[in-house]
Amino acid sequence: MAYLKWLLLGCVTLSIVLLMVHETVSRTNTGGILYPQESESRDVRSLDGIWNFRLSPETDPLTGFRERWFQKDLSQTGRTIPMPVPASYNDVTEDKAIRDHVGLVWYDRTFYVPEAWRQSSLVWLRFGSVHYAAQVWVNGHLVMSHEVGHLPFQADITSVVKFGAKNRITVAVDNILLQTSVPQGHVSEVSTDNGTRITQSYTFDFFNYAGIHRPVYLYTTPSIYIDDISVHTGVRGDTGIIKYNITYGGLLRATSQGPACYVDLLDRDGNYVIRDAGSGRLQGELEVPVARLWWPYLMDPEPGYMYTLQVRLTAQQWGIEDIYRLPVGIRTVEWNNTSILINGRAIYLRGFGRHEDSDLRGKGLDYTLIVKDNNLIKWVGANSYRTSHYPYAEEIMDFADREGIIIMNECPSVDTENYSPALLEKHKDSLSQLIRRDKNRPSVIFWSIANEARTQLPDADSYFRAIVEHVKHLDSTRPITMALARGYGEDRTGQYLDVIGFNRYNGWYSNTGRTDTIRNNVIAEAVSWHHKYNKPVMMLEYGADTLAGLHLYPEYVWSEEYQVEIMSKHFEAFDRLRMQGFFVGEMIWNFADFKTAQTITRVGGNKKGIFTRNRQPKASAHHIRRRYWELAGELDNAILPNDLDHYVSKSRH
Ligand SMILES: *[C@@H]1O[C@H](CO)[C@@H](O)[C@H](O)[C@H]1NC(C)=O
Ligand SMILES: *[C@@H]1O[C@H](CO)[C@@H](O)[C@H](O)[C@H]1NC(C)=O
Ligand SMILES: *[C@@H]1O[C@H](CO)[C@@H](O)[C@H](O)[C@H]1NC(C)=O
Ligand SMILES: *[C@@H]1O[C@H](CO)[C@@H](O)[C@H](O)[C@H]1NC(C)=O
Fold this sequence. Notes:
The structure is a single chain. This protein is α+β, with helices and mostly antiparallel strands. 22% of the residues lie in helices and 30% in strands. The protein folds into three domains: 22-175 and 210-219, Galactose-binding domain-like (Jelly Rolls, Sandwich); 225-331, Immunoglobulin-like, CATH 2.60.40.10; 334-636, TIM Barrel, CATH 3.20.20. The protein is built from ten helices and 32 strands. Strands 25-26-27-28-29-30-31-32 form an eight-stranded parallel β-barrel, surrounded by five helices. A six-stranded antiparallel sheet has the order 3-2-4-10-7-8, covered by helices on one side. Helix 4 runs parallel beside helix 5. The longest helix has 23 residues, at 2-24. It is globular and about 75 Å long. It starts with a helix and ends in a 17-residue tail after the last helix. Bound molecules: 2-acetamido-2-deoxy-beta-D-glucopyranose (4 copies). The site of one 2-acetamido-2-deoxy-beta-D-glucopyranose has 6 residues, from loops.
C-alpha cells in the first residue's frame, strides 16, 4: 500500500507539471528559439545571480501548489536559502537532503524592467535549460511549463510584466524521472529510521543533477519580430551558397502587407560581402564568391570560419524594424556506405565522449570551465566529441562552431527500454527541440538519437524506425547515428542509421585485466557491424576507470599505466581498421572524470576521464595527445606542436 502511495505521489507531481504543459502551450513559444541577442531593435538582460530557494517537503511534495507559493515571495512561505543560477542545486550546500532530494524544489527572485521597454516592445523570458521539468510564474501568472532538461524554452511575458513596480519570477523544478520521461528512471519507497521516504533510481551512469542549469534572460523584440531563421549551405565551384528561410512572429492587421526582409552577409572581420539581398522576400539564396569554407580544427589553417547573416525585417507602415545577426559557416556534409565527407574531404574522428560536470556546479554553466575544456580539446589535438548524453549548452556549442570542432549532437535518451507510445512522443519531442535549436550550426555534423538503447528488444525495431523518420523529416542534411551497446547479432536498429557507432569495454567490463584480448575483439566487432549493415562504423566508447596518481606496474586495473595500455591496444585495432576503408572514428570514454549516483562500482564517481574532474591530465591525456596529433599530421597535414615528446637525446631530434 505505502509503496503504491509513494509511487503515485511521484507520478502526481510530474503529471501536474505535464497537465500544465498542455494548459499553457498556447502561451509558451512554439516557434523559433533563437539565442537572445542585443541589436538595434533588441535589448537583453540577464537574470543570473543569487536566487531564493527551498525544497518541497519530501513527505508532501504538493504543498507549494496547494499553498500557492507562486503568489507571494518564497521567503514568506518558509525558510529559503540563497542558490546560484545557473548551477545544479545538489552540491552547493552541506545538506544531504538537498543533494539527494527527490521531487520538487522552488526558486524565486525579483526584477524591474526599464520604462523604455514599454514602447512597442514585447518582453520575453528565456531559460537555457532547467532539469528535468519546470513551471514558471511571473507575478503569480503561470507563463510556461517545460519538460526534458538540457533544452531552452521561452515565452512572451509582455501581458504580465509590471512597469514601474517590482516583478517576481517563481520557478518550480521537478527532478523525478519516470518510464515515460527522457531519460527514464523510477521512484520507489525506502523504509528509513524516520519513516517511509521515496528514492529515485536510474540505469544511466551519471548523477541526476537538477536545477536551473543555464542562463536566464529577459529580452525584448519589436511587436513584429524575426521568430526563426533556417540556413542550408552548399558549395558550387568556389562559390558558397547560403539558402535562408526567415519566419516572423507578432500580429499584423488583416489588411496590412506582410513585412519585408533584407539580408546582408558580413565576413569574419565585419566587412560586407553582400548587401541588401533578398528583394524583401523571406526566403532566398545568397551566392558568396570565393567563399571561405567552414573546416574542422586542424583540417585547415583557419578552421571554424564564420560569416554573419544580418537579417533585417521591416514592417514599414508601423515603423518597425527588427535586426538579428546569425553566425553562419559554409560547408557541405555527405556520406556513403564507407565514409563521411565535409566539403568533399573524408573525415576521421578523433575525440571523446564528455559530460557537462564539475565540482560544486554540477551541470551548471560556467564560462571558465567552457574555455578551459575548449583549450584542452585543442591541446589534445582532438577534432570532435559526442554531446553524451544530452544536448550541451548553446554557449558551449558556440565554441565548437568558431573553433571547428565536429559535434555528434545527442538527445537525452539513455539506456532506453520499456518502449511505449508515450515515450516515443517524448523522445521525438526532445529531438524536435534539439534540431530547432541547433539546425544552423556548422559544427553539428551528426544527430545521435540515443545512447545504449536496448536495441535487442522486439519493440526497438518500429520505435527507432519512427525516431529516424522523424529526424529525417526535420533535417535530411545530416547523417543519423546512435551509440549501440548490444551485440551486432541481436541489434534491430542499425538498419535505420546512416553511421554505426558502438560502445564496448574490452579489457574492462569484459576480460578485466586481459589487455591481450582487446585488439582482435575490437577489429572483429567493427568488421561484423560493417558486414551486417554495410555502413561506416566508429567506436564511440571504450576505456578504463583510472584513479589519478595510482601507479601500478606491470599494468593493473585502476592504475594510470593500465589506462594507457588499454588505449594502445585499441589504437592498434583502430589503425588496422582504418586500412579497411569503412572505419571513420575513435572516441575514448571520457574526457574528464564525472559524478555518478552512489554505487559500489564507482569510487567518488566515474574515473574514466583522461583528465581529472579538475581538468588536470592523467598519463592517458599525454598518451592520446601524441596519437591525435600524429593522426592530424598524417591525415590533415597539420603542423605538430614541438612539445609532443620531451627531449631525450640528439638522435631523437
Ligand atoms: C522525521 O520526519 C519528520 C517528517 O515526517 C520531520 O518533521 C522530522 O524532523 C524528522 N526527524 C528527523 C530526526 O529527521
Ligand atoms: C520556411 O520555414 C517555415 C517554417 O519552418 C516552413 O513552414 C516553410 O515551408 C519554409 N519555407 C521554405 C521555402 O523552405
Ligand atoms: C564513398 O566516398 C569515398 C570518398 O569520396 C570514396 O572513396 C568511396 O569510393 C565511396 N564509397 C562508395 C561505396 O561509394
Ligand atoms: C550502400 O548500402 C546499401 C544498403 O546496404 C546498398 O543498397 C547500396 O547498394 C550500397 N551502395 C554502394 C555504392 O555500395
